[in-house]
Design a protein that fits this description.
The chain has helices at 53-71, 87-96, 100-117, 129-145, 174-183, 224-235, 250-265, 297-302, 307-315, 327-344, 353-364, 369-385, 393-405, and strands at residues 20-23, 28-31, 37-42, 75-82, 125-128, 149-152, 155-158, 200-204, 220-222, 240-246, 271-277, 280-282, 285-286, 323-324. By secondary structure, the protein is of the alpha/beta class. It is globular, with a radius of gyration of 22 Å. The relative contact order is 0.16.
Length: 409
């Protein structure tokens, strides 16, 4: 599966800072010090509907991670999946009387268009669940052979008790885990499981649903968590720098995935930091496909909204914060974009050297984009009020905002 084209990242003078970021597993800030190549895995979409602002906010956060690392002169090895076969996709295809493969391809293509328009840097590897099946089957077989998986009516489950580190990503109690498991794709009430939280690794073929040859597992399709584990281990290996996604993935998805990988390899942890973006709400509730309270990036673009303004609307909120979208959020972003573009359109201005360092400092400090925006606001206000004599300054600001925040002025 192919990703989307990369926008050019301007080179800036000097060098950025090492990233200090909040790690869900430790509950505090950690300073990441990757090698020459920083490794990051971000969980992708289930393509049964278009990209909404909640998605965009998540991918914006991890785009900032990449940009901070690139500014330290590192390379970035970024991997993202597409869950192109799963119950929600099949249910939507049946509801709309369309082919599930065509639906997945259509929505994945639209996602690529949205990411391109928003100038999100693409992953080096963009892998669909279906194409990952040949690598998933052997992992499930290994878990079963190790006694960490068991069969129930043809389905294969992972035993969470096989991982002594289970629970060390989310740090939730058993009651909270069981509740979230039921809400987020698990089946804690299914009779016959060893423990209610055990997640499915391989679903035996169901009538009328797609299935693949699973060798000794029989025909079926993979569970959600093992999909990401297979892709991450194949392309990044254990101990990669950041496992990323929305805060709703901390449990069960990242918790279960970590346990799968740790039992498979005997190593701990799967990732050096588990980083989670906050949720975006509309009309008082989290944006959700199931609730239908969505603001689509593609619709905003069709309405003539500049993608740079959409990106500024996202950057105005700290990536870990939950926030609510309103028309005022977008109006403020459009006004900010207009001010910034007016400021950099002049032939000279106040020196921007200190501004570049302010942006770097803010983003290296747990991706504090609102503080970075405020710094550019101050420079733009000084430009409007007093001007300046530095002929290089407008270009420096424009390149810095593009390189570090992905906003093209």
């Amino acid at each position: 599966m192919h990703a989307w084209p990369a926008s050019e990242v301007p080179a800036l003078p000097g060098q950025g800072r090492d990233l200090r970021i909040h790690d869900t597993a430790t509950g505090g800030l950690v300073t990441l010090d990757p090698g020459p190549v920083a490794r990051i895995y971000v969980c992708g979409i289930t393509p049964y509907d278009a990209t909404h602002l909640g998605h965009a906010a998540t991918y914006n956060a991890f785009d900032l991670v990449q940009r901070v690392w690139l500014d330290t002169k590192r390379q970035v090895h970024y991997v993202q999946n597409v869950t192109d076969v799963d119950d929600p996709l099949l249910e939507r295809a049946e509801r709309d009387s369309v082919d599930w493969v065509a639906l997945a391809e259509q929505e994945t293509a639209l996602f690529r268009e949205d990411m391109t328009a928003l100038r999100m840097l693409p992953p080096r590897h963009y892998i669909g669940a279906v194409e990952a099946i040949p690598g998933i089957v052997p992992l499930v077989e290994r878990l079963r052979e190790a006694g960490a998986a068991y069969e129930l009516e043809g389905d294969i489950y992972f035993s969470v008790e096989s991982d002594p580190h289970f629970g060390q990503v989310s740090h939730l109690d058993a009651a909270a885990m069981r509740l979230l498991s039921a809400e987020r794709g698990g089946d804690p009430d299914r009779p016959g499981k060893k423990t209610p939280l055990d997640p499915m690794l391989w679903m035996a073929a169901r009538p009328g649903e797609p299935s693949w040859d699973g060798g000794s597992l029989g025909r079926g399709r993979p569970g959600w968590h093992i999909e990401c584990v297979a892709i991450a281990l194949d392309h990044l290996g254990m101990g990669f720098d950041v496992q990323g996604g929305g805060s709703d993935l901390a449990f069960p998805h990242h918790e279960m995935g970590a346990s799968h990988a740790q039992v498979l390899t005997g190593e701990f942890p799967m990732a050096k930091a588990y980083v989670h973006a906050g949720m975006v709400a509309l009309h008082g509730e989290k944006m959700s496909k199931s609730k239908g309270n969505l603001v689509f990036v593609s619709q905003l673009r069709r309405d003539g909204v500049d993608p740079a303004a959409i990106r500024l609307a996202l950057l105005a909120h700290h990536y870990r914060a939950d926030w609510e979208y309103t028309d005022d959020v977008l109006r403020d972003a459009v006004a900010r974009l207009d001010r910034w573009r007016a400021a950099v359109s002049r032939p000279d201005g106040p020196s921007a050297d200190a501004l570049v360092e302010e942006i770097r400092d803010a983003l290296a400090d747990d991706l504090d984009a609102p503080t970075a925006l405020a710094a550019v606001d101050r420079w733009a206000a000084a430009q409007e009020e007093h001007g300046g004599t530095d002929t290089a300054a407008p270009g420096v600001v424009s390149r810095a905002v593009d390189a570090l925040m992905g906003v093209a002025l």
